[in-house]
Amino acid sequence: MKQTKTKILSPDAHGLREATDILRAGGLVSFPTETVYGLGADARDNVAVAKIYAAKGRPSFNPLIVHLADVSAVSQYVQMNDAAKRLADAFWPGALTLVLPVVPDGTISMLVTAGLGTLAVRVPDHPVATAVLAAFGGPVAAPSANPSGRISPTTAAHVLAGLDGRIDAVVDGGPCGVGVESTIVSCAGAPTLLRAGGIPIEALEACLGAPLLRDEDPDAPVSPGQLASHYAPNGLMRLNASYAEPHETLLGFGGVNADLNLSPSDDLTEAAANLFGMLHQLDALGAKYIAVSPIPAHGLGQAINDRLRRAAAPRD
């Protein structure tokens, strides 16, 4: 694709104005959310959305998330129901994405929905994201700002490492606090978990007063983040490893002697925040074979394990 000079913008009035101008002109702007950096384009502009796929090398059947500045704007694009309203009231703004039926005759590009009759939407909880979205005044499609299948970015430097010269600008708002993407729940029917993420599943189920159904078929994604091989570093990964072989680099968790440790104190929140940054570090170290300590399968551990399974999946 055509190379462009990627600008680094400050999250001040001048930088936000320039970011908004780029979005209105059909360009691509990366900005921080509380989860990871997103790669934003006008979700109503087919050409702009196509640029996201081109920049990321993203499969066209993998839908995108639309980000909105506030909850009041959501009903312009999707049909809310009681379960969705309950979750939105409890967790928006925040690291929750809801998949809902699109409104009839809506303005969202079909490239965003990948031709489906549903749309993934969320209201992020980050001052820079909110400022960009409010200034733009419309829906912004924003998958993670990384080449498709590679490690998601939690700093502006991570964005530039993967997309420098392929996007117009990045608003540098510092490191992201949550460190893994949003939890995705479909409310198009019975509430169904599509992707574990920054909101623990237990909290969602407590809000709804019922268990979420599960739908984890990677062969027919109905939401972002459901491809089998995803978030992958260059090295081959071995999961649930109690030790590292001599030729392996150990990505640890808890009280283990590791080359890199997601959280020496067994803190899943710390591990989630460190995950993508340490996967980037493994690439920087040139790690060809990576052993990963077991991660507890509860709370944010479910999101971490989901990312690790996708990172370790066989590649074409």
Folded structure, characterized:
The chain has an 11-stranded mixed beta sheet, with helices on both faces. Strands 12-15-13-14 form a 4-stranded parallel beta sheet, covered by helices on one side. The mean pLDDT is 92. It has helices at 13-24, 46-56, 82-91, 110-113, 127-136, 156-163, 201-208, 268-285, 300-312, and strands at residues 7-9, 29-32, 37-42, 65-67, 96-101, 118-122, 140-141, 169-171, 183-186, 192-195, 213-214, 236-238, 249-252, 260-261, 289-292. The two termini are 22 Å apart. The protein has 2 domains: 7-214, DHBP synthase; 236-312, Threonylcarbamoyl-AMP synthase, C-terminal domain (Rossmann fold, 3-Layer(aba) Sandwich), CATH 3.40.50.11030. It contains 9 helices and 15 strands. β10, α7 and β11 (213-214) form a beta-alpha-beta unit. It is of the alpha/beta class and 316 residues long.
SSE arrangement, N to C: EHEEHEHEHEHEHEEEHEEEEHEH
Number of helical segments with 4 or more residues:
9
Shape: globular
Number of domains: 2
- Class per helix and strand makeup: alpha/beta
Q: Roughly what percent helix?
A: 25-40%
Under CATH at level 1, the class of the largest domain stands as Alpha Beta
CATH level-four homologous superfamily name of the largest domain: DHBP synthase
CATH topology of the largest domain: DHBP synthase
- What's the rounded overall pLDDT mean? 92
Beta-strand residue fraction: 15-25%
- CATH architecture of the largest domain, by name, is Alpha-Beta Complex
- First and last CA, distance: 22 Å
What layout of secondary structure does this protein have?
Elements: E1 7-9, H1 13-24, E2 29-32, E3 37-42, H2 46-56, E4 65-67, H3 82-91, E5 96-101, H4 110-113, E6 118-122, H5 127-136, E7 140-141, H6 156-163, E8 169-171, E9 183-186, E10 192-195, H7 201-208, E11 213-214, E12 236-238, E13 249-252, E14 260-261, H8 268-285, E15 289-292, H9 300-312
Helix pairs in contact: 1-5, 8-9
